[in-house]
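STRUCTURE REQUEST FORM
Protein name: Transcriptional regulator WhiB
Source organism: Streptomyces boluensis
Requested output: structure tokens
Priority: standard
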Amino acid sequence: MIGKSTTQAPNAGASERQPSWQELALCAQTGAGFFFPEPGSSVREAKQICLACEGRTACLEYALENDERFGVWGGLSEKERDRLRRGTGRRSGNRA
Ligand code: SF4
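Status: completed
Returned output:
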């Protein structure tokens, strides 16, 4: 602003908070179609996007805490989240 000191950067005073996972969400840039596919459709593309998403861990925690039943969240499908909730997420080869 004219007549005022400009010793501070334009965003000085703005919150230095960490961005929320929603702000980091790559799915917000790609659209929801990949993440809520028709039943029986592949979720591979969504999972690949999630792997590169900085908000992935928080996203998965949110989905588990809020019992999100549909779509890909945090890189996991509905079935994978269900197995994780039930504690049956063992892969073959982990058997005793
Ligand atoms: S982890 Fe996947 S579903 Fe979650 S915010 Fe990131 S891109 Fe979206």
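Reviewer notes: The CA atoms of residues 47 and 75 lie 5 Å apart. The radius of gyration is 19 Å.
Form closed.
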